Structure formats: structure tokens, C-alpha cells
Amino acid sequence: MKKSGKKKTHVPFRLNMLFFIVFILFSVLILRLGMVQIVYGDDYKREIERTEDVTVNNPVPRGKMYDRNGKVIVDNTPLNAITYTRQAGADTEEMLKTAEKLAKLIHMDTKKVTERDKKDFWIMHHEEAAKKKITKAETKLYEEKKITDKELYNKQLSRITQKELNTITEDQMQVLAIYREFSSGYALTPQVVKNKDVSDKEFAVVSENLEKLPGVETTTDWDRKYPFGSPLQTILGKVTSSEEGLPSEQLDYFLASDYSRNDRVGKSYIEQEYEDVLHGQKAKVKNVTDKAGNVIHSQKVSDGQRGKDLVLTIDMELQTAVEKIIEQELKDKKHNYSDTQLLERAFVVMMDPNTGEILTMAGKDYKKDEKTGKYKMNDFALGNLSTSYAMGSAVKGATVLTGYKTGVLTPGQRILDARMKIKGTKDKGSWQTMGVIDDLTALKRSSNVYMFKTAIAIGKGNYVPGQSLDVDTAAFSTLRDSYSQFGLGVRTGIDLPNEQNGFKGTGDGPGLLMDLSIGQYDTYTPLQLVQYVSTIANGGSRLQPHLVKEIREPIDDNGKMGPVVEEMAPTVLNRLDMKPEWIDRVQEGFRQVMQDPRGTAASGFIDAEYKPAGKTGTAEAFYDGPKRSQFKEPPQTMNITLVSYAPYNNPEIAMAVVVPWAYQSSEGHHMNLDIGRKAYDAYFKLKKERSEKESNESASEDVNNQSGQNE
């Protein structure tokens, strides 16, 4: 019997399970897409249309500098400027197009365009020709990543010929000069394209076409201006240009301090030392950009404020007067005296010995210009702290006081000044034999032997004519440590960078110890010399010299100087560990130097009404200046110096005069005394004139007030 019925299709359980899993996954996917579109759709749309706020700091003019009497020394002069702000997404083609348009409106100086700039520009305009400069083998190496993009590009650059570069036209050079400035800037940071010699016409026509020049703006820039001209130039310092921007060695510091890479900053001396004060508070602009980096709109956050002003301790009338004195003396002695072939510089520092305020820091360098063959006078005020010399007998005040302090010398002690004969060495002596003298006469007449025997006693030596001499080498440290308490051989602490210490001799023989005691071994700076004499003048306080007197807010709308932010108080670095009567004794010796008929400076100062005190110096030295390469051996020369203060009984001004390499013969001119006398005369003349003017103005004001009351 035959079975009947249909076969049942049978779907395996595992296949059903697979279909079920696929169904679940699709359901989850649909649910997820729904959530993305419905729940998070607006969020993702906002992300796509996201904008970003970028705050840009725009520089402001630097603070001004005034002298102690309110006269402007360093100012800002406004400049028309054309700038370019590169948007984050700007490409080379876009920048080139803008540069081409701008080149039709302004004229650029193309001297700064380098050969590398030209080669880059040529490649941009000759892509096919540039490609042919790469061989197939080099292309293959590049594709195999065996050479880098940079290496390939450098090969192209090296193969561009001068003939090809010469095809760049003058019009293209104008475009290149502009493009060069465009590309050197940073995204969303204004870059100066031109700020020198921007004519009114250029400024106007660019302003009228700003809509066609994306990223270009017209604005007002600034440059440093010096109303007094060259005086103090080397001390005031320099500011970087917009091209230099931040110094590479301080880049991280400035960037961390909210500077932009192309900001101008002080790069030397006062401008550098007081950068934090002078640079001001930048104007802030918030640029709103889209995701592509395009600026949608800008919003001013703050106007900013130019830098604070510095009031210097310098008296510019006195400064200019002293500079003229140095110039006249250099010319006179250089051209009218013999043996002055090496004379080329001189320095004067004048300081208030009671406060440390520098009233004058003058230095001049007078030498032939190699190109013209004519003599030229250059500012070298910087040399007062950056160069050092053997100063000679000017340091004898410190030697005598060291003798008192160590107990080897007592005030009034008498010593025989006669030539000293030490076995195996040349005789040593004073400029003339003086016989038995005391400490005052030793200072007044500048006895070397008195200082020699004091130094030998400090070194526990025993001088016997004609025999060898041994001293304890610790005496070198004893003398130098004592000298440093006056400021000799150590930094003075002046508010300027790069101050020099001077140089210490490296030998330790007895003859060298004797030389050290008369200022003919170690070297000191003119600034150290004025700190030293000020320490004696004020009774034993070593004051820190400073050039900034006050920091003030910028000038107000009425043209008046702003309120004082900070006033620099006198700073005592140390007090001499010496009895007041010892210092009084040396002060009397210094008075006799200039006011006793037998004093070494009496010829220049005995008739001075302001009654100065001081000490002269003459040092036998070897020339170590810029011409030293001309000589097989450095020639011997004389440095002449003067330290002084006035009036002797109530010091208000201290002075150091240094004339290195003054002459080569044993006797020459007295330029140190001539400069010192004229500088003092200038100071006291100005003081008198100002006092009379103030009295007349006061009297006139009293008359006007009385007249008003009568009415």
C-alpha cells in the first residue's frame, strides 16, 4: 500500500537563530540612527558649524624715558603702517594673489629679498620646469621614502641657475617682497608689511581698497626717537625690529609671558633691563573663526595701554656738557701732543655719593674711520661698565685704609720713601724720592713706596735692601677682599646687564703684590672707580649705583607726567668695617691732593670755589685696545685717572675720570685733570643757574600773588 502526503520543508534551528540575530542587529542600528538624528542631531549640527574664539594681542607703543628734570630722552614717533594678518586656512595661492594686488598700490624695498626667497618664488611660478630638475632616480627614491620632501626640494633649489633667477621682473620682485612679509607672520597675528616711508598716498589708497585685500590693514605703528641725538645711545639700548621679533635665546620666556613672536622687545641695556615696565599692556582683539579657520568677525576686548615711563637719574644738560668736554679734550690731546698715537677714548662718571644716582655716564671713542680715513667720534658710554683698566694711584686710599684695618699701619705713621732694591728685580720707587713721610703726605704726593711697604707688611714680609723678598701670598686675597668692600674688582650692582668685573692678575710674587697696592696689576671699570670714591666720600657706605630714578604711569591728557608707580630708594650694599677716624684721615689726605700746593692735583683744582677732594692716578700699562693686532708685542702706555668728590666737607657729587692709553712717554699731558676740572665747573655752573632761575621764578610768583591780593 502506497503512502501518501506532502514533504514538510524543514528549516534548521541554527538558521532561524541567525535570522533572529540579524533582525536584532538591524533593529539596534535603526534605533541608534534615530537617536543620532532626533536626539543628538542639533548637537552634531552645531559641531559642524562650530566657531572658535581666538584672542590676539596687538602691541602698543613703549614707555618713554625722561631725565631727572623731566626732559624727554627717548620718545615714540608715529609711523603709518600696512599690516597683514594671515588667516589659519590661508594657502600660498591666496596669499600670492593678495600680494599681487597690494604690489600695485605700494612700493617695497627689495634689498631684504634673499636669493633663497627668489628661488622659492621661481619654483612657485615654474612648477613644470622645477619638476624637471628632479631625476627619475630621485623620484623613485622619494616614492620609496628613501629621501624626504625637504631633501628633494633642496635638490630643486640647488639646480636653479642665476639666469633663471634673472627672469624675475622688477614687478615680480615687488610682489615677492610683500609675499615674503606675508609668509613670515603667524596665523591671526598682525605682521608689519611696511612701516618705513609709507607715503600718505600709499596709506590712503590701501585704506580705500581693504575690501579687495583680505588680511591687509592700515594702522599706526611707532619707532624710537631720541630728541638729544647720540648722547647715552649705547646705554639706553636698542629695541628689536618687527622682523627680528623675539630674541631666539629668550623665546620661551617671552612666549610664556604672553608675547607674540614678532613683538619688538628691548634687546640691550636699559631697554632690555626694564622690558617688563616699558612694553605696556597690549590691546586685545577677539577673532571669531569657523572650523576652517576663517575669521567670521572681530571684537575688541581691551584698548591696551602704552608702557610705563622711566625717569632716569641722568641730568641730560650735564651729560651733553660733559660729552662735549671729552670730545674737545680728545681732539686737542690727540692732535696737539706727541706720543698720543694710541689715545682714542675717555670716560667720565658722575654720581651722587649719598644716593647712588648716576648724573652723568659719558664715554667717547675717537678713531679713524677705515672707509673714509677721517677721524670719527662715537658714543661709548657703555665702556664705563664693559671695559676695565689698570687705574694707578687712584686706588691708594683703599690701600691705606686696608693697612689701618689689618693693623700694619697706624694713622700718622712715618715711613721712609726711598728707592727699593730687591734682589733679582728692577728697582722700585715713587715718581720722586720723598724721604720720611706720613700717610697724609703719601696720599698728597702719591708715594708708591709707602704703599709698597704697607703691602709687604700685610704679606708679613721683611724688606732688606739688596736681598730677596718673600711675602705670604694670602696678602693678595687680603688686599682684594678689602678693595671689594669699596667696589673695586666686583660688580657694582648697577641696573644694567652685562657689567664686567675687571681682571685679576694671576701671579703671586712679591713684586706683583707691590704693583697691586698702587693699582698697576688688577683692572677696574670706571664705574667701579666712582663707587669706590663715593664710599670714601660718604663715610663708608658702598651704595648701589642706578640709572632709573622713578617708574611712572604714562603721561596724561594734559601733557603732565603720570603718577609715580615706584621710586628707587638708595641701596647700601655694605658698610666698611673701619673706624670713622680712619676714613676721616683718608678724606683729609684726599683734600690735600687737590687743595694743598704740593698735592698732585693742586695745579688743576686749588682755586676751585667748590673745594674738591680726590686722588690722581697714573698706571704703567700695556696697550690692549682694538689696534693690538698691528703690533708684534703690545706697546707700553700710560693710563691716567682721577677720582674725586666735592665739596670735601659736604660731598654732593662724586666723579671718576679715566683716560686709557693717554700717552707713551714717561711724561705727557694732564687730560684727566683738565676733563675733571671742566666737568666740575659745568656741574656747579648748572647748579647755580638753576638756583637763580628758581629764585627769580619764586620772586615773580610772590609779586603776582601780592598784586592779586591788592586787586
From TrEMBL:
Residues 688-711 are annotated as: Disordered. Residues 59-298 form the Penicillin-binding protein dimerisation domain. Keywords: Cell cycle, Cell division, Cell membrane, Cell shape, Cell wall biogenesis/degradation, Membrane, Peptidoglycan synthesis, Transmembrane, Transmembrane helix. Pfam families: PBP_dimer, Transpeptidase. PANTHER family: PEPTIDOGLYCAN D,D-TRANSPEPTIDASE (PTHR30627), PEPTIDOGLYCAN D,D-TRANSPEPTIDASE MRDA (PTHR30627:SF2). The keyword Cell cycle applies. It is found in: Cell membrane; Membrane. This is serine-type D-Ala-D-Ala carboxypeptidase. InterPro entries: Beta-lactam/transpept (IPR050515), Beta-lactam/transpept-like (IPR012338), PBP_dimer (IPR005311), PBP_dimer_sf (IPR036138), PCN-bd_Tpept (IPR001460). Belongs to the transpeptidase family. Pathway: Cell wall biogenesis; peptidoglycan biosynthesis. It is a single-pass membrane protein. Residues 702-711 have a biased composition (Polar residues). Residues 347-668 form the Penicillin-binding protein transpeptidase domain. Its EC number is 3.4.16.4. It catalyses: Preferential cleavage: (Ac)2-L-Lys-D-Ala-|-D-Ala. Also transpeptidation of peptidyl-alanyl moieties that are N-acyl substituents of D-alanine. It comes from the Bacteria. The keyword Heme does not apply. One of its GO terms (biological process) is cell division. It comes from Peribacillus deserti.
